[in-house]
Specification:
Layout (H helix, E strand, L loop, with lengths): L13 H17 L14 E2 L12 E5 L5 E3 L2 E3 L1 H9 L7 E5 L6 H12 L5 E3 L2 E2 L1
Parallel strand pairs: 1-7, 2-5, 5-6
Antiparallel strand pairs: 2-3, 3-4
Length: about 130
């Protein structure tokens, strides 16, 4: 009997495409699409920063290196920010972005204002080491 040797001229790429589509789906569902904003803030680094958090319609409050307050991208003084916070619903998600060289005082003021207006859905953004 003669053994016929089948030549390997072609490669079936369908399993390869299936694997790539699964990997693409995993990457897209776990990727973080957090809008970092245009305000230059050097976030504090932490070892356990959560980079996979889903973002709903949160507002961003930033404190830059000059201890100035921003709501979104708009520069506000303390009184303007207090008025804006008073108008927020109590379950509003708020993301804090505080520059690592900013003083601690703006953070304590913000926390006091949040407590005053019963805002408890607060997240502090950091960078992962």
């Amino acid at each position: 009997m003669l053994n016929k040797v089948k030549r390997f001229d072609e490669m079936n790429v369908i399993p390869f495409i299936d694997i790539m589509l699964v990997l693409l789906a995993i990457v897209l569902t776990t990727a973080s699409f957090i809008n970092q904003g245009l305000i230059p803030v050097n976030l504090t680094e932490t070892a356990n920063a959560d980079a996979s958090g889903e973002q709903t319609e949160a507002i961003f409050i930033s404190v830059d290196e000059k201890n100035q307050f921003y709501l979104g991208e708009e520069l506000l003084n303390e009184e303007q920010l207090k008025v804006e916070l008073a108008a927020l619903p109590k379950n509003q998600e708020i993301n804090l972005r505080i520059d690592r060289i900013a003083n601690f005082e703006p953070f304590t003021k913000l926390m006091d204002w949040f407590k005053q207006h019963e805002l408890t859905n607060i997240y502090l953004q950091t960078e992962q080491k």
